[in-house]
Give the backbone structure.
Amino acid sequence: MPPSDGLLLLASSLGIGALVAGAGLLRRRGWADSATRRLVHVGVCLFVAPAPWLFSAPVPLYVLAAGFVGINAAAKTRGWWPGVHAAKTTSWGTVALPLAVVPALAATWSVAPERRLLFAAAFLVVGCADPAAAWIGERTDGPSLTEAATLWGSTAFAGSAGLLLSGLLLWGGWPAPRALSAAAIAAGVATTVEAISRRGWDNLTVVVAVLAVLVPLQGPAVTASTLGLALLGGGAFGGLAWGVGALNGPGAAAAALFAATLVGLGGTAWVLPGLAFFVLSSALSALPEAPEGDGPAPTRRTLRQVMANGGVAWALLLTVGGGPGEAPTLRAACYAGFLGALAAAAADTWATEVGIRYGGAPRSLWSGRRVAPGTSGAVTLAGTGAGALGAVAVAAAPLLVDPTGLAVPSVAHGAAAGLVGMGLDSLAGATIQAQYRSTEGEGYTEHPSAPGERPARGWAAVDNDAVNLLGTLGGAAASVVLWTL
C-alpha cells in the first residue's frame, strides 16, 4: 500500500470517528436521535461515494469497510454511540452500510476503473434518496406500502433517486436516452428494494440493486429495453404468485425482481431451473393436506423464506452480471453453484411436503429415534425419495434448451449437490436449529410459545430460514466442487 493511501486510510478512520463523536455531542445538546443518526448516515455516504478517486487502489477501501463492519457490529450489540444507534435499536444499518462497500467495489473499481462512477451513484442514492424518503414519510399521512415504507416516502425515494442518477449518468457521458432510461429503471428497482428491506439492510440491498441495473447497462450486451421487458415479466410473475396465495407482498416483490434478473441477465438456461423450482414446488401445495396436527397449515411464503431458498442462487447470478465482460470460467462456476443451490432448495421443499403427507412417522437424522411428523431434522424414506426427484427436476431443467450439449454434466453435479444440501439442511435442523417444548403434548416445535422463551435445544438465532439458507449454501458449494473436479 503506498504511503499516501496509508495516511488517507488513517485520516478517513479518524474523520468518520469524529463524525460519530460529533453526533453524540449534538444529541446531548438536544438534537433528536433520528437527526443525529441521519447526519452520520449522509456524512459517511458523501465520503464513500468519491473514495475511488481519492485512493490509488481498492485495497484500502476494503480494509476500511471491513474494519467498520466489525466496529459497528460491536457498537450496535453493546449499545455504544447512542447518537447513531439510539433512534433505531433494532436496525443493522450501521453494519450494512460499510458491508455494502465490499460487493460494490468488487463489481466496479476492482473490475474496471470506468465503473467508479457507478460506485459513487449507488452510495449517493443511499445517502440522499433514503433520508429524503424517511423525512417525507415521517411527515405525511400516506398509506403504508410495507412495514418500512409509505406511499409518499417511496415516491420521494423514487423521484430523488431518478433525478440524481440521471444527472450523474449524463455528466458521466452516457447518451441521453440510455442515461434517462437506465436511471428510471435503477430508481424503480431500488425503490422496490428499499420498501421491502427491514432493519436497516436497505443500506446494503439498495446499493446492490442500483449496481445490478447500471453495471450491465454500461456494457453493450444488455439494453434498457431488455431490462424493462424483464421487469414487466417479473412483475407479472410476482403478481401471479401473490394472487394465487403462494407469496405475501414483500415475498412476491422479491420473487418478481429475482425473475426479472433471471430473464434480463441470465437467459433461458438460468430461467428454466428457477421456474422448475418455483412452479413444481408450489404445485405440491395441491396435494391432499397432511393429517390433522401433522405439520404447519399452508401459508403465504415470506420475504425471508424467498431469500433463504433463492438468495444464494440470486447472488451467484448477480456475480455473473457484475463480473468482467469476458469471464467464461467465472460464469460456468457460478452457473454450477446456481444449479446446486436451487436443487438443494427443491430437494428440501419436496422432501418436507411429501414426507409430512405420506412418509409416516419420521426418524431424527441425528438420534435415529422416531419423532412427530414435521419435526425439524426428521427424515422419511418417501420424503428422501421425493427430495431426490426434486433435485433432479431442477438440475435437469437446462436440458430443455440443451438436450445433448455441455449442460449434461452439470445435471449430475447439480442433482448430487442438491442431495448434499438437503442432507446438510436436515442435519442442521436436527442439531443447531432452535427447538422449543411443545405446549400441546410431548415433542418440540420450531416456534416459541411466548416472547423471550429460550429454546429447549439448538441455538436461538438459528431458525428454519437460517437452516434453509445453510442448505442452499452447501448445495452451491458442493456443485462448484464437483464441477471443478
